[in-house]
């Protein structure tokens, strides 16, 4: 008597249509979780620069959104240091490269 192994065919019956649909939905959610870095034109960047300079000089709170690890993150607070040569600023203990900044807003007093 010989053993007839059907290979992977014996496992295909375990996957119900609901399982396949949920796996496809999960894959699409994972694919959409990663964002693309927003492009910033020179006019926007000059606006961001002036807001950063004003907030640093006056000590005013500001909100900075930056793009890191495929997502946009946000930090609010007072800008502690600005390093124009290194292209980095520090706000509430978070070092942010100028290249990562995607949005700057001054907080209302």
From TrEMBL:
Tell me the superkingdom of the source: Bacteria
UniProt xrefs under Pfam families:
YolD (PF08863)
InterPro entries registered for this protein in UniProt: YolD
Q: What is this protein called?
A: Phage DNA polymerase component YolD
Q: Which organism is it from?
A: Bacillus sonorensis L12
């Amino acid at each position: 008597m010989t053993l007839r192994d059907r290979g992977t065919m014996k496992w295909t019956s375990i996957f119900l249509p609901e399982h396949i649909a949920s796996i496809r939905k999960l894959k699409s959610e994972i694919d959409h979780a990663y964002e693309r870095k927003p492009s910033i034109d020179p006019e926007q960047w000059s606006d961001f620069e002036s807001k950063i300079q004003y907030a640093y000089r006056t000590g005013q709170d500001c909100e900075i959104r930056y793009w890191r690890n495929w997502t946009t993150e946000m930090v609010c607070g007072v800008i502690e240091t600005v390093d124009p040569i290194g292209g980095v600023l520090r706000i509430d203990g978070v070092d942010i490269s100028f290249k990562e900044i995607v949005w700057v807003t001054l907080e209302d007093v």
